[in-house]
Amino acid sequence: MPTSSKSPRLHRAWLVAGVSMLTLVAAAGFGATPGVLVTPLQEEFGWSRSTISLAISVNLLLYGLTAPFAAALMERFGIRRVLVAALALIVVGSGLTVFMTASWQLVLLWGLLVGLGTGAMALGFVATITGRWFVRHRGLVTGVLTAGGATGRLVFLPVLATLAVGSGWRSASWTVTIAAVAVIPLVVLFLRNRPSDVGLAAYGATGNEPAEPVQHPAAGRALATLAAAARTRPFWLLAAGFAVCGMSTNGLIQIHLIPAAHDHGMSEPLAASLLALVGVLDVVGTVASGWLTDRVPAPLLLGLYYALRGGSLLLLPSLLAAEPHPSLLIFIVFYGLDWVATVPPTIALCRTHFGTAGPIVFGWVFACHQIGAAIAATAAGVIRDDLGSYTLAFTGAGLLCFLAAAASIRIPSRPAADHDEGERADQAGEGTDDHDRRVASGSGA
Fold this sequence. Notes:
The protein is mostly helical. The protein has helices spanning 12-32, 34-45, 49-77, 79-97, 103-120, 123-133, 138-166, 169-190, 218-229, 233-251, 253-263, 268-293, 298-315, 326-338, 343-354, 358-387, 391-408, 418-428, 434-441. It contains 19 helices and no strands. The chain starts with 11 loop residues before the first helix and ends with a helix.
């Protein structure tokens, strides 16, 4: 039986959160790497930006589609096994990239293998860790762990860009491989699946929290959860907003800001440093967002974040130049504070409306995020090849952010009234078990 969560010593949840943070830092660095490879690959192999962007789109798409299944696999087989397998895929994919000679190999290695590996360490992992190990300070810890992505960009991007320019892009790929190998022992030694594995309750638990759901086959549980959640309005509003979030961050700025700045005469290491500065500010913005999520209605936060991002993107085409000037730095500040500030309120709304299935539901919402990212990565490359600039891509994404803001403020802060919940539960009950009916109704939040 788990003991009380109160202890004179530091609760084990904080150690788990620390190791999870390091894992997320590494995963973010792996995911950001393609952004510094676009120009070197184009120069060495003569591939167009749209061709390179296709491989990156596959990576982003699988990164998202893996997330809900990874969350279910973590329930079935444990967090450590899933993360070790994911890191092994990254080691193989990144390591073999240095030997590639054709663009289809880039799709296979960075698109397929690295995409699957990083997807298993995506934000669904954050939802799983915070949902199991924390009751008190859950929103704050979610913000801190989410900021691990920003820290990963901060640590990796300038280093990888400098390596790609000075020693060749293969050095950058080898760096990712070595980093993935280094994370594996930390996961094996220190991560545990649940507090009960070490005789503890979740940090801040009172005994009144919803019970963990019964285990189902991973794929079936992920799909059944999607089927039930898709019958609800909050799911589609969250998914639509998060798809635009993916378009405007991972798919557009993370992949194309460096080559766009290079088009205006800026060096790649300098452009990568600006993107890393976004990461520095994102740490502040995301931690603050986690704190605010515990205090302010999440839909209002999402609406504000998307609106600020939209305004920043509309200004970006006029700000790029060979050297960063004050106006561009103002963009970096706003965009950095806003980068993944959307994650804590989105995770909170998934748990509010879908209870203990919240991490898997968030996995599907995050899949929509990455579908949007994949579309934007390819579309921006095509726009650049056809029109000679990224202006249309940036302004189009900005307008979509305003639509996402409008959708987000329409999400209920709390589950619907009992009558509506019962109606949704009856609808979801056809062909699903009692747990899936709770998913559709949002009970247990």
